[in-house]
Amino acid sequence: MKRINKTRYALLGMLSHQPMSGYDIKKALHMSTQYFWQESDGQIYPILAELLKEKCITSLAIESQGSRTRKVYQISSKGLEELKDWLVQEVVPTIPRNELLLKLFFGSVVPLEITQKHILEHQRQLKKRLETYKKIDQGLGDEKSPYQLYWQMTVEFGKQIVQAQLGWCQDALKLLKKIEQSKSQ
Amino acid sequence: MKRINKTRYALLGMLSHQPMSGYDIKKALHMSTQYFWQESDGQIYPILAELLKEKCITSLAIESQGSRTRKVYQISSKGLEELKDWLVQEVVPTIPRNELLLKLFFGSVVPLEITQKHILEHQRQLKKRLETYKKIDQGLGDEKSPYQLYWQMTVEFGKQIVQAQLGWCQDALKLLKKIEQSKSQ
DNA sequence: GGCCACATGTAAGCCGTTACATGATTTA
DNA sequence: TAAATCATGTAACGGCTTACATGTGGCC
Asked: Which of A183, B67, B88, B151 gives the lowest tally of CB atoms within 10 Å of its CB?
Protein backbone atom coordinates (compact mmCIF):
# COMPACT_ATOMS: atom_id res chain seq x y z
CA MET A 1 0.00 0.00 0.00
CA LYS A 2 1.46 3.28 -1.15
CA ARG A 3 1.70 5.99 1.41
CA ILE A 4 0.13 9.23 0.32
CA ASN A 5 1.38 12.66 1.09
CA LYS A 6 -1.26 14.28 3.22
CA THR A 7 0.46 17.64 3.24
CA ARG A 8 -0.94 18.10 -0.27
CA TYR A 9 -4.46 17.89 1.07
CA ALA A 10 -3.81 20.12 4.02
CA LEU A 11 -2.60 22.79 1.61
CA LEU A 12 -5.39 22.26 -0.88
CA GLY A 13 -7.88 22.32 1.94
CA MET A 14 -6.67 25.61 3.30
CA LEU A 15 -6.73 27.10 -0.18
CA SER A 16 -10.29 25.85 -0.63
CA HIS A 17 -11.28 28.29 2.09
CA GLN A 18 -9.58 31.25 0.48
CA PRO A 19 -6.57 32.26 -1.64
CA MET A 20 -3.41 32.45 0.41
CA SER A 21 0.36 32.52 0.36
CA GLY A 22 2.52 29.78 1.83
CA TYR A 23 3.21 31.94 4.81
CA ASP A 24 -0.50 32.62 5.27
CA ILE A 25 -1.21 28.90 5.22
CA LYS A 26 1.37 28.31 7.88
CA LYS A 27 -0.18 30.95 10.10
CA ALA A 28 -3.71 29.77 9.43
CA LEU A 29 -2.76 26.19 10.28
CA HIS A 30 -1.19 27.38 13.46
CA MET A 31 -4.33 29.25 14.41
CA SER A 32 -6.89 26.63 13.59
CA THR A 33 -5.40 23.16 13.49
CA GLN A 34 -2.39 23.53 15.74
CA TYR A 35 -3.44 20.68 18.01
CA PHE A 36 -3.99 18.09 15.34
CA TRP A 37 -2.17 19.19 12.22
CA GLN A 38 1.01 21.12 11.63
CA GLU A 39 3.20 21.66 8.63
CA SER A 40 6.76 22.86 8.45
CA ASP A 41 8.41 25.19 5.94
CA GLY A 42 10.36 22.32 4.48
CA GLN A 43 7.09 20.80 3.33
CA ILE A 44 4.92 23.77 2.49
CA TYR A 45 7.00 25.56 -0.13
CA PRO A 46 8.18 22.59 -2.19
CA ILE A 47 4.73 21.00 -2.27
CA LEU A 48 3.10 24.30 -3.16
CA ALA A 49 5.46 24.46 -6.15
CA GLU A 50 4.54 20.90 -7.04
CA LEU A 51 0.83 21.63 -6.87
CA LEU A 52 1.36 24.63 -9.12
CA LYS A 53 3.20 22.53 -11.69
CA GLU A 54 0.38 19.99 -11.64
CA LYS A 55 -2.12 22.82 -12.07
CA CYS A 56 -3.97 21.95 -8.88
CA ILE A 57 -3.45 25.54 -7.84
CA THR A 58 -2.82 28.72 -9.78
CA SER A 59 -0.67 31.67 -8.94
CA LEU A 60 -3.16 34.41 -8.26
CA ALA A 61 -0.79 37.25 -7.62
CA ILE A 62 2.81 38.00 -6.95
CA GLU A 63 3.03 41.07 -4.84
CA SER A 64 6.38 42.72 -4.58
CA GLN A 65 7.57 45.41 -2.29
CA GLY A 66 11.22 46.01 -2.93
CA SER A 67 12.90 42.62 -2.92
CA ARG A 68 10.16 41.19 -0.76
CA THR A 69 7.80 39.01 -2.71
CA ARG A 70 4.59 37.40 -1.71
CA LYS A 71 3.01 34.67 -3.80
CA VAL A 72 -0.69 34.17 -3.41
CA TYR A 73 -2.20 30.93 -4.64
CA GLN A 74 -5.72 29.94 -5.54
CA ILE A 75 -7.14 26.43 -5.79
CA SER A 76 -8.13 25.30 -9.29
CA SER A 77 -11.07 23.10 -10.21
CA LYS A 78 -8.64 20.23 -10.70
CA GLY A 79 -7.25 20.82 -7.22
CA LEU A 80 -10.72 20.96 -5.75
CA GLU A 81 -11.58 17.62 -7.35
CA GLU A 82 -8.45 16.06 -5.93
CA LEU A 83 -9.28 17.41 -2.51
CA LYS A 84 -12.80 16.04 -2.67
CA ASP A 85 -11.55 12.65 -3.84
CA TRP A 86 -9.38 12.45 -0.78
CA LEU A 87 -12.04 13.74 1.59
CA VAL A 88 -14.54 11.05 0.65
CA GLN A 89 -12.03 8.25 1.11
CA GLU A 90 -12.11 6.38 4.39
CA VAL A 91 -9.79 7.68 7.07
CA VAL A 92 -6.80 5.39 7.43
CA PRO A 93 -6.51 4.70 11.14
CA THR A 94 -3.04 5.27 12.54
CA ILE A 95 -1.85 4.95 16.08
CA PRO A 96 0.18 7.98 17.06
CA ARG A 97 3.07 7.37 19.38
CA ASN A 98 2.76 8.77 22.86
CA GLU A 99 6.07 9.34 24.58
CA LEU A 100 4.51 10.18 27.92
CA LEU A 101 2.75 6.84 28.03
CA LEU A 102 5.89 4.99 27.01
CA LYS A 103 7.82 6.55 29.87
CA LEU A 104 4.95 5.76 32.18
CA PHE A 105 4.86 2.19 31.00
CA PHE A 106 8.48 1.77 32.07
CA GLY A 107 7.89 3.74 35.25
CA SER A 108 8.93 0.86 37.50
CA VAL A 109 12.54 1.32 36.38
CA VAL A 110 12.90 4.76 37.99
CA PRO A 111 11.83 6.34 41.29
CA LEU A 112 8.15 7.08 41.62
CA GLU A 113 8.79 10.81 41.76
CA ILE A 114 9.98 10.82 38.17
CA THR A 115 6.65 9.56 36.90
CA GLN A 116 4.89 12.02 39.16
CA LYS A 117 6.85 14.87 37.65
CA HIS A 118 6.01 13.78 34.10
CA ILE A 119 2.33 13.71 34.89
CA LEU A 120 2.41 17.08 36.62
CA GLU A 121 4.13 18.63 33.63
CA HIS A 122 1.57 17.06 31.32
CA GLN A 123 -1.21 18.44 33.46
CA ARG A 124 0.31 21.90 33.25
CA GLN A 125 0.39 21.76 29.48
CA LEU A 126 -3.15 20.49 29.25
CA LYS A 127 -4.40 23.44 31.26
CA LYS A 128 -2.59 25.83 28.98
CA ARG A 129 -4.17 24.10 26.04
CA LEU A 130 -7.65 24.45 27.50
CA GLU A 131 -7.08 28.18 27.71
CA THR A 132 -6.15 28.25 24.04
CA TYR A 133 -9.33 26.42 23.16
CA LYS A 134 -11.37 28.94 25.10
CA LYS A 135 -9.75 31.77 23.18
CA ILE A 136 -10.51 30.07 19.90
CA ASP A 137 -14.11 29.59 20.98
CA GLN A 138 -14.40 33.31 21.67
CA GLY A 139 -12.83 34.09 18.32
CA LEU A 140 -15.29 31.84 16.55
CA GLY A 141 -18.09 33.75 18.20
CA ASP A 142 -21.58 33.46 16.79
CA GLU A 143 -20.65 33.66 13.15
CA LYS A 144 -21.68 30.57 11.30
CA SER A 145 -19.89 30.46 8.00
CA PRO A 146 -20.02 26.97 6.50
CA TYR A 147 -16.55 26.03 7.57
CA GLN A 148 -16.54 27.64 11.00
CA LEU A 149 -19.00 25.03 12.06
CA TYR A 150 -16.63 22.24 11.19
CA TRP A 151 -13.84 24.09 12.88
CA GLN A 152 -15.97 24.24 16.00
CA MET A 153 -16.36 20.48 15.88
CA THR A 154 -12.61 19.93 15.87
CA VAL A 155 -12.20 22.35 18.76
CA GLU A 156 -14.90 20.50 20.67
CA PHE A 157 -13.01 17.28 20.03
CA GLY A 158 -9.86 18.77 21.48
CA LYS A 159 -11.66 20.05 24.55
CA GLN A 160 -13.18 16.67 25.30
CA ILE A 161 -9.86 14.92 24.97
CA VAL A 162 -8.06 17.43 27.15
CA GLN A 163 -10.67 17.25 29.86
CA ALA A 164 -10.56 13.47 29.87
CA GLN A 165 -6.80 13.59 30.20
CA LEU A 166 -7.00 16.08 33.05
CA GLY A 167 -9.30 13.69 34.83
CA TRP A 168 -6.89 10.88 34.29
CA CYS A 169 -3.99 12.98 35.59
CA GLN A 170 -5.78 13.48 38.88
CA ASP A 171 -6.52 9.79 39.28
CA ALA A 172 -2.99 8.81 38.36
CA LEU A 173 -1.45 11.28 40.80
CA LYS A 174 -3.72 10.06 43.56
CA LEU A 175 -2.73 6.49 42.89
CA LEU A 176 0.95 7.33 42.93
CA LYS A 177 0.60 9.16 46.22
CA LYS A 178 -1.11 6.15 47.74
CA ILE A 179 1.71 3.87 46.67
CA GLU A 180 4.22 6.33 48.02
CA GLN A 181 2.59 6.31 51.41
CA SER A 182 2.23 2.55 51.61
CA LYS A 183 5.95 2.24 50.83
CA SER A 184 7.12 4.74 53.42
CA GLN A 185 5.37 2.85 56.19
CA MET B 1 18.08 20.05 18.60
CA LYS B 2 19.05 16.54 17.62
CA ARG B 3 16.26 14.09 17.24
CA ILE B 4 16.70 10.95 19.26
CA ASN B 5 15.66 7.52 18.24
CA LYS B 6 13.02 6.43 20.69
CA THR B 7 12.85 2.92 19.34
CA ARG B 8 16.05 2.28 21.28
CA TYR B 9 14.28 3.02 24.51
CA ALA B 10 11.20 1.04 23.66
CA LEU B 11 13.43 -1.99 23.10
CA LEU B 12 15.57 -1.38 26.18
CA GLY B 13 12.44 -0.87 28.21
CA MET B 14 10.89 -4.13 27.14
CA LEU B 15 14.14 -5.95 27.88
CA SER B 16 14.23 -4.32 31.31
CA HIS B 17 11.14 -6.34 32.14
CA GLN B 18 12.61 -9.62 31.00
CA PRO B 19 14.99 -11.19 28.45
CA MET B 20 13.40 -11.56 25.06
CA SER B 21 13.95 -12.06 21.37
CA GLY B 22 13.11 -9.47 18.75
CA TYR B 23 10.03 -11.39 17.86
CA ASP B 24 9.00 -11.57 21.50
CA ILE B 25 9.37 -7.83 21.83
CA LYS B 26 7.18 -7.28 18.85
CA LYS B 27 4.49 -9.50 20.30
CA ALA B 28 4.79 -7.95 23.75
CA LEU B 29 4.50 -4.45 22.33
CA HIS B 30 1.44 -5.51 20.44
CA MET B 31 -0.13 -6.89 23.57
CA SER B 32 0.62 -4.08 25.95
CA THR B 33 1.33 -0.82 24.14
CA GLN B 34 -0.53 -1.32 20.88
CA TYR B 35 -2.57 1.84 21.28
CA PHE B 36 0.29 4.21 21.95
CA TRP B 37 3.49 2.60 20.74
CA GLN B 38 4.26 0.25 17.90
CA GLU B 39 7.45 -0.85 16.24
CA SER B 40 7.97 -2.48 12.89
CA ASP B 41 10.40 -5.23 11.88
CA GLY B 42 12.43 -2.77 9.91
CA GLN B 43 13.30 -0.98 13.11
CA ILE B 44 13.48 -3.74 15.69
CA TYR B 45 16.13 -6.01 14.21
CA PRO B 46 18.67 -3.42 13.05
CA ILE B 47 18.46 -1.47 16.29
CA LEU B 48 18.72 -4.61 18.36
CA ALA B 49 21.97 -5.34 16.50
CA GLU B 50 23.13 -1.81 17.18
CA LEU B 51 22.38 -2.09 20.88
CA LEU B 52 24.32 -5.33 21.00
CA LYS B 53 27.34 -3.74 19.37
CA GLU B 54 27.21 -0.89 21.87
CA LYS B 55 26.94 -3.45 24.67
CA CYS B 56 23.66 -2.04 25.93
CA ILE B 57 22.30 -5.55 25.63
CA THR B 58 23.92 -8.97 25.62
CA SER B 59 23.05 -12.05 23.68
CA LEU B 60 21.72 -14.40 26.30
CA ALA B 61 21.08 -17.42 24.14
CA ILE B 62 20.83 -18.52 20.60
CA GLU B 63 18.44 -21.37 20.33
CA SER B 64 18.45 -23.33 17.14
CA GLN B 65 16.05 -25.88 15.84
CA GLY B 66 17.10 -26.88 12.38
CA SER B 67 17.75 -23.70 10.46
CA ARG B 68 15.40 -21.79 12.68
CA THR B 69 17.24 -19.61 15.13
CA ARG B 70 15.99 -17.57 18.00
CA LYS B 71 18.16 -14.91 19.60
CA VAL B 72 17.31 -13.96 23.13
CA TYR B 73 18.71 -10.70 24.47
CA GLN B 74 19.22 -9.39 27.96
CA ILE B 75 19.67 -5.80 29.03
CA SER B 76 23.12 -4.91 30.42
CA SER B 77 23.89 -2.49 33.22
CA LYS B 78 25.03 0.02 30.60
CA GLY B 79 21.72 -0.37 28.79
CA LEU B 80 19.78 0.04 31.99
CA GLU B 81 21.62 3.26 32.74
CA GLU B 82 20.85 4.60 29.31
CA LEU B 83 17.20 3.70 29.74
CA LYS B 84 17.04 5.44 33.11
CA ASP B 85 18.77 8.53 31.70
CA TRP B 86 16.07 8.78 29.09
CA LEU B 87 13.22 8.06 31.48
CA VAL B 88 14.12 10.92 33.80
CA GLN B 89 14.35 13.43 30.98
CA GLU B 90 11.32 15.61 30.38
CA VAL B 91 8.86 14.33 27.84
CA VAL B 92 9.19 16.28 24.61
CA PRO B 93 5.65 17.30 23.69
CA THR B 94 4.69 16.45 20.13
CA ILE B 95 1.41 17.00 18.40
CA PRO B 96 0.36 13.87 16.55
CA ARG B 97 -1.46 14.38 13.30
CA ASN B 98 -5.08 13.37 13.24
CA GLU B 99 -6.39 12.61 9.79
CA LEU B 100 -9.99 12.31 10.92
CA LEU B 101 -9.94 15.83 12.28
CA LEU B 102 -8.28 17.17 9.16
CA LYS B 103 -11.04 15.70 7.00
CA LEU B 104 -13.59 17.04 9.40
CA PHE B 105 -12.03 20.47 9.29
CA PHE B 106 -12.54 20.57 5.54
CA GLY B 107 -15.99 19.02 5.84
CA SER B 108 -17.72 21.98 4.19
CA VAL B 109 -16.17 20.98 0.86
CA VAL B 110 -18.09 17.70 0.62
CA PRO B 111 -21.68 16.61 1.34
CA LEU B 112 -22.58 16.35 4.99
CA GLU B 113 -23.09 12.59 4.70
CA ILE B 114 -19.40 12.07 4.09
CA THR B 115 -18.45 13.58 7.41
CA GLN B 116 -21.20 11.59 9.05
CA LYS B 117 -19.78 8.39 7.64
CA HIS B 118 -16.29 9.19 8.89
CA ILE B 119 -17.54 9.78 12.38
CA LEU B 120 -19.65 6.62 12.40
CA GLU B 121 -16.64 4.58 11.31
CA HIS B 122 -14.53 6.19 14.00
CA GLN B 123 -17.19 5.37 16.55
CA ARG B 124 -17.17 1.76 15.45
CA GLN B 125 -13.44 1.51 15.92
CA LEU B 126 -13.54 3.14 19.30
CA LYS B 127 -16.04 0.60 20.53
CA LYS B 128 -13.83 -2.21 19.33
CA ARG B 129 -10.95 -0.62 21.14
CA LEU B 130 -12.89 -0.41 24.39
CA GLU B 131 -13.47 -4.14 24.18
CA THR B 132 -9.74 -4.70 23.82
CA TYR B 133 -9.09 -2.59 26.89
CA LYS B 134 -11.57 -4.64 28.87
CA LYS B 135 -9.80 -7.83 27.86
CA ILE B 136 -6.47 -6.39 28.91
CA ASP B 137 -7.95 -5.39 32.24
CA GLN B 138 -9.11 -8.94 32.81
CA GLY B 139 -5.70 -10.24 31.84
CA LEU B 140 -4.03 -7.90 34.29
CA GLY B 141 -6.26 -9.29 37.01
CA ASP B 142 -5.29 -8.77 40.61
CA GLU B 143 -1.61 -9.43 40.22
CA LYS B 144 0.41 -6.47 41.24
CA SER B 145 3.92 -6.90 39.93
CA PRO B 146 5.78 -3.58 39.94
CA TYR B 147 5.29 -2.93 36.27
CA GLN B 148 1.74 -4.17 35.90
CA LEU B 149 0.66 -1.20 37.92
CA TYR B 150 2.18 1.19 35.42
CA TRP B 151 0.68 -0.80 32.61
CA GLN B 152 -2.70 -0.38 34.27
CA MET B 153 -2.20 3.36 34.29
CA THR B 154 -1.61 3.46 30.55
CA VAL B 155 -4.69 1.32 29.97
CA GLU B 156 -6.71 3.65 32.14
CA PHE B 157 -5.46 6.55 30.04
CA GLY B 158 -6.63 4.85 26.89
CA LYS B 159 -10.04 4.12 28.32
CA GLN B 160 -10.59 7.70 29.38
CA ILE B 161 -9.60 9.00 25.98
CA VAL B 162 -11.78 6.55 24.14
CA GLN B 163 -14.79 7.30 26.28
CA ALA B 164 -14.34 11.02 25.78
CA GLN B 165 -14.17 10.49 22.05
CA LEU B 166 -17.29 8.34 22.07
CA GLY B 167 -19.09 11.15 23.84
CA TRP B 168 -17.88 13.61 21.25
CA CYS B 169 -19.01 11.32 18.43
CA GLN B 170 -22.56 11.36 19.75
CA ASP B 171 -22.61 15.13 20.05
CA ALA B 172 -21.11 15.60 16.60
CA LEU B 173 -23.59 13.23 14.99
CA LYS B 174 -26.47 14.96 16.69
CA LEU B 175 -25.25 18.32 15.45
CA LEU B 176 -24.90 17.06 11.91
CA LYS B 177 -28.38 15.64 11.97
CA LYS B 178 -29.76 18.97 13.11
CA ILE B 179 -28.06 20.78 10.27
CA GLU B 180 -29.34 18.19 7.83
CA GLN B 181 -32.90 18.74 8.95
CA SER B 182 -32.69 22.51 8.89
CA LYS B 183 -31.38 22.31 5.34
CA SER B 184 -34.04 19.96 4.03
CA GLN B 185 -36.80 22.27 5.15
C1' DG C 1 20.13 49.93 16.78
C1' DG C 2 18.09 45.64 17.79
C1' DC C 3 14.42 42.57 17.69
C1' DC C 4 10.49 40.55 15.82
C1' DA C 5 7.40 39.52 12.11
C1' DC C 6 7.22 38.99 7.23
C1' DA C 7 8.49 35.93 3.44
C1' DT C 8 10.42 32.20 0.53
C1' DG C 9 13.13 28.83 -0.22
C1' DT C 10 17.10 24.67 -0.07
C1' DA C 11 19.78 20.79 1.86
C1' DA C 12 20.90 17.22 5.01
C1' DG C 13 19.59 13.46 7.13
C1' DC C 14 17.01 10.72 10.29
C1' DC C 15 12.84 8.01 11.05
C1' DG C 16 9.90 4.70 9.93
C1' DT C 17 7.00 1.88 6.97
C1' DT C 18 6.47 -1.39 3.40
C1' DA C 19 7.83 -4.84 0.68
C1' DC C 20 10.91 -8.33 -0.18
C1' DA C 21 13.58 -12.61 1.01
C1' DT C 22 13.83 -17.05 3.28
C1' DG C 23 12.48 -20.99 5.44
C1' DA C 24 10.72 -24.13 9.45
C1' DT C 25 6.87 -25.78 12.24
C1' DT C 26 2.31 -26.36 13.67
C1' DT C 27 -2.57 -26.71 12.89
C1' DA C 28 -6.94 -27.23 10.47
C1' DT D 1 -1.82 -29.53 1.69
C1' DA D 2 -2.70 -24.98 2.59
C1' DA D 3 -2.52 -21.44 5.86
C1' DA D 4 -0.93 -19.32 9.92
C1' DT D 5 2.65 -18.59 13.06
C1' DC D 6 7.40 -18.57 14.24
C1' DA D 7 11.66 -16.08 13.24
C1' DT D 8 15.21 -12.93 11.43
C1' DG D 9 16.71 -9.98 8.53
C1' DT D 10 17.58 -6.28 4.21
C1' DA D 11 16.48 -2.64 0.83
C1' DA D 12 14.04 1.04 -1.01
C1' DC D 13 11.84 4.94 -0.46
C1' DG D 14 9.15 8.54 1.16
C1' DG D 15 7.94 11.79 4.86
C1' DC D 16 9.16 15.19 7.75
C1' DT D 17 11.96 18.01 10.73
C1' DT D 18 15.83 20.89 11.44
C1' DA D 19 19.01 23.93 10.20
C1' DC D 20 20.68 26.97 6.95
C1' DA D 21 20.35 30.99 3.76
C1' DT D 22 18.70 35.60 2.71
C1' DG D 23 16.71 39.93 3.04
C1' DT D 24 12.84 43.61 4.11
C1' DG D 25 9.91 46.45 7.04
C1' DG D 26 8.05 48.14 11.27
C1' DC D 27 8.25 49.11 16.08
C1' DC D 28 10.32 50.37 20.58
From this structure: B67
Alpha helices in A35-145 (DSSP H): 41-53, 77-88, 99-105, 112-140
Question: What is the b/e burial string over A65-101, where b = at least 16 CB atoms within 10 angstroms of the residue's CB?
Answer: eeeeeebbbebbeebbebbbebbbeebeeeeebbbbb
Tell me, yes or no, if A164 comes closer than 8 A to chain B by beta carbon.
yes
> Out of B104, B160, B175, whose CB is closest to A164?
B160
Cβ of B168 and A175 within 8 Å? no
Interface check B156 vs A, CB under 8 A: yes
Four-CA torsion A102, A107, A113, A116, nearest 10 degrees: 40
CB-based contacts of B90, cutoff 8 Å, min separation 6: A118, A121
Give the contacts of A58 (CB within 8 A, at least 6 positions apart): A52, A73, A74, A76
- The model's pLDDT over A114-164, given as tens digits with 9 standing for 90+, comes to 999 999 999 999 999 999 999 988 887 767 788 889 999 999 999 999 999
- B-contacting residues of A 86-105, CB under 8 Å? 86-88, 90-105
Q: First-to-last CA distance in chain B?
A: 57
Nearest to A79 by CA among B116, B105, B106: B106
pTM score of the predicted model:
0.94
In angstroms, the CA B173 to CA B179 distance is: 10
